[in-house]
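Form P-L/3: holo structure prediction, ligand magnesium ion.
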Amino acid sequence: MLVKHGVISALTRSTSHSPSSSSSTVLRRQQFLVRTLCASKTHLPKLIRAMSSTSEADAESVLRTVTPSLDPKRHKGQAVLSLLVTVTQWKIAVIGGCREYTGAPYFAAISALKIGADLSHVFCTKDAAPVIKSYSPELIVHPVLEESYTISFHNLCLLLSGCSQFSEEEKRKVQDKVIGEVDKWMERFDCLVIGPGLGRDPFLLECVSKIMLLAKKSNVPFVVDGDGLFLVTNSIDLVKSYPLAVLTPNVNEYKRLVQKVLNCEVDEEKAEDQLRSLAKQIGGVTILRKGKSDLISNGEIVKSVSIYGSPRRCGGQGDILSGSVAVFLSWAQQLKSDPERKLLFYFTLSENFSPSESPVILGCIAASGLLRKAASLAFTKHKRSTLTSDIIECLGKSLEDICPAS
Ligand SMILES: NC(=O)C1=CN([C@@H]2O[C@H](COP(=O)(O)OP(=O)(O)OC[C@H]3O[C@@H](n4cnc5c(N)ncnc54)[C@H](OP(=O)(O)O)[C@@H]3O)[C@@H](O)[C@H]2O)[C@@H](O)CC1
Ligand SMILES: Nc1ncnc2c1ncn2[C@@H]1O[C@H](COP(=O)(O)OP(=O)(O)OP(=O)(O)O)[C@@H](O)[C@H]1O
Ligand SMILES: [Mg+2]
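OUTPUT (holo model):
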């Protein structure tokens, strides 16, 4: 809609600023174009598509292609994608949750389950764990992360018991313990979501940067959101050139990334080009820039998802998105190894896509499309009182409407 208005107002502006010689061919052509645009709804989308450098993704087709069918014979942790390929895991892990924030990791993890993950883990701090567990018995919660204040507490205890100050070596021991707790699970995860409700404690973020290195070593994809983006913006090398990394910045997080990486301010006039440059500069990671329209780029292509969502901007919708990206990305990754679905992919989505190259982009498109559908449905029901948990309740119905389970 914005594009439509932009096109029309740009043309109107240029006609009104043209010289008075109304006989000028250019002016006549422009006036004709404005009349045509205003009169004919059918020509408009074609023209807009032609003028826009970004193509609107067909999110519903992507959702249908990426979502695997359910097989009654499978056991937990095993999803049969076709007769030929069996996948053994649909497990997602969220790294996040601290004293201040317990909602964000819960929203991300429960959304992953509601969409179709078999198991959803949360690795959080010790104080956040009982709270998150109390929200839902469905989640597997690991109280393993440590914040600086717990280290200071250890330190105080040591001093009181007459021991010397907590040394760097001891600090490293705590860190190794944390990393070890995550590492023993790492290979089992299809995707991590790093950052929802993580907080910004320096010791904790240092541990999380090590967890990112571990994930990269094991080729586990990860979605970086919230405070994970705070960490990454200050240490871009953590994600640089890792093709299985997705960054999902909101308006503030995007601004910080652009300032840090491109050394300039966000330019809305060149939104797509700037996003493409940013993704390219970070070595081809995929960036999903959240906003009125979600823009997705891996430094090569730029796709947008503008399905109507909800005018309510309650906190936590980004967390639903990050958990959803993790699931759809995992499913899209499997397209590569499933001949039946790969064929379906070619028939339905072939334009501008290559299944071997873009599962990460497909995962982002599917997640964005589904969240927007669910937000719209929740808003229809709850209007001004719509909350994030209402949107989560609508994820199942929204997915069912697009690709029925049976
Ligand atoms: N129910 C829940 O549990 C939810 C929890 N959530 C969780 O909240 C976390 C932050 O996410 P968000 O979306 O508020 O971050 P964002 O837009 O960058 O910041 C807005 C402004 O706040 C400020 N600021 C932020 N953190 C700060 C800090 N530690 N200390 C000081 N300032 C801080 C920030 O300042 P600046 O960074 O610009 O200096 C900016 O001005 C993240 O973990 C997210 O997952 C959400 O997902 C919602 C639901
Ligand atoms: N102005 C808007 N109009 C419609 N949808 C929007 C708008 N802004 C964001 N969204 C949608 O809401 C979702 C969450 O984006 P948002 O910018 O709220 O993330 P966030 O700030 O990280 O959220 P959170 O509160 O979970 O941290 C995105 O999928 C995006 O498409
Ligand atoms: Mg957020």
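COMMENT: Confidence is low (pLDDT under 50) at residues 1-23, 25-53, 80-85.
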